[in-house]
Write a structure and sequence with these properties.
alpha/beta, 11 strands, about 425 residues, binds flavin-adenine dinucleotide, 5-stranded parallel sheet, single chain, Elongation Factor Tu (Ef-tu), domain 3, 3 domains
Length: about 425
Amino acid sequence: MIKTKSGNIILITSLVITMIFWLMFQFKLEEFPLFFLVQLTQITALIGTLLLSWSMLLMTRLNFLERLFDGLDKVYKTHKNVSIWGMIIITLHIVILAIQRVPNFSSAIKIFFPVHNQTYINLGVWSFWLFVFFVLTTLLMKKIKLPYHIWKYLHKATGIALILAFIHIILNPGDISSISVLNIWLLFTTGTGIASWIYFEFFYKLLAVSYYYRVTKIKKESEVFKIQLAPVDKKMKYKPGQFAYLSFINSKLSREIHPFTITSHPDENELSFAIKVLGDYTKTLDKLKINDIARIWGPYGSFANKFLKFNKDAIFIGGGIGIAPFISMIKEANKKPINNRRLSIFYCTKYKCEACFDNDFKKDAQKNLNISYLNKCSREGGRLTIPEIIKRVREINNTLIYICGPNRMADPLKKNLIIHGFPKTNIISESFGLL
Ligand SMILES: Cc1cc2nc3c(=O)[nH]c(=O)nc-3n(C[C@H](O)[C@H](O)[C@H](O)COP(=O)(O)OP(=O)(O)OC[C@H]3O[C@@H](n4cnc5c(N)ncnc54)[C@H](O)[C@@H]3O)c2cc1C
C-alpha cells in the first residue's frame, strides 16, 4: 500500500479550505452561471497564490518539512511541482481575464502587458511574467546551459513576484474590500509564503542551526576530494546516508553553500565527505587547506531510513560519486554483523581508475562474509544488468534496492526492476540534483 505523506495531506487540505472559504465568503450563487468567468478568475487567483506561497515555504529547509514530506529531496520535488502548478493556474487566471474581454481583442491582449491605468493590474501582470520567467528558466536550465549559481541568483527574486501578487490581490477593489475569514486566510497563507522567502534568502545562514568544523585531511583521488573535518566545538548529530550543506571559510573560495553527503559514520569523531570535481565551485576545491574552517548546516535527508529501520537484505547501486551515501551505510552494517542481512554493492563507474572507493569495498567484502562487491565499468565490461542484480537476491520481497546516481542510470534501472517484479516501495533512489 502506498503511504500518503502527511505533507501532501496538509497541502491538499489548505487547497480545500481555500475553496470552502471562497464558496462561503465570495461566491454568489445568483451570479452563477452568468458571471462564471469572473468567478473562475477569483478562484484561480486564490489557488494560484496559495500554491506559490507553498512553494516559498517548501524552500526553507525547515526540519518539520522533512518530517512531513519524508526527506528534503521530496520537499524540493513538491516545491518544483507546486511552483509549476501555481504558474499554470495563475496563467489560467490571466487567460480567463483576457477571454472576458473578447471580442475586444486589443483589450484582451492588453491584459498581458503592464500598461493599465490601475496600478494593481500592472503589479499582477509583472508578478505573472516574473513567475513565468523563473519557472521556465528552472525547467530549461539544463537545455540553455544556465550555470547553477546564476540560476540561484535569479531564483532568489521569486519572492518579489509573490509580494507583487499579494499587493495585486489586496489592492483589487472588487475582491478584497471587506474583512472576512477568506481575507484573513489569504493574509495568513500569503504572509507565510513571503515570510518564508525573507527567512530563506536573508536569514537562513544566520538563523538555521550550523556547526563549525576544521579541515584535518584532504586527499584527491581521480577527481574526488576526500575531506575530513574535526568539530571546532559542538558535533553535528546525523544518521548514515544523510547530507549537509557546506561552506568553506577560505579567502580563495566562494562562500557558496553546497550540499554533500556525509561519508563518515555517526560514531566517528570526525566528519568526512567525498566531493567530485564537477563545476565552477568544486573545481576550486584544490585551494582548500588543512585547518580551514567549514560552516555546516544540517543534517538533511532520509535516504537510509528503511535500511536503518528494517533488517532486510539490501542492494546498493552507486553511480560515480553517487556511491557516497552507501559508504556510511556500509559502516553501519559492519557494526551489526549479527543481523545476518546480506549486502550487495555495485559501484558503477565509466572506468576502473574512477572507482576511488574500490579498495575500501574490497576490504569490506573480505572482512564481512555477508557483503559482496562488484565494480561495474561501463566502458570496460559493460553496464550493470538486471540478471547481475537478481543473482544477488535471496527473496525479492525482502530486499531493499538502493540506487544513487545520475538519472540516466537510475531511471531505466528502476523501471526494469519493477518490470522484473521488485516492489516499487522497496526501491529507494536519490539523485544529487534537487531540481
Ligand atoms: C542531496 C545531495 C547530496 C550530494 N552529495 C554529493 C556528494 O557526496 N559528493 C559530490 O561530489 N556531490 C554531491 N552532490 C552534488 C553537489 O552538490 C554538486 O556536484 C555541487 O554542488 C556542484 O557544484 P559546482 O558549482 O561545482 O557545479 P555546477 O556545475 O555549478 O553544478 C552542477 C550541478 O550541481 C547541482 N548544484 C550546484 N550547486 C548546488 C547547490 N548550491 N545546491 C544544490 N545543488 C547544487 C545542480 O544540480 C547543478 O546543475 C550532492 C547533491 C545533493 C543535492
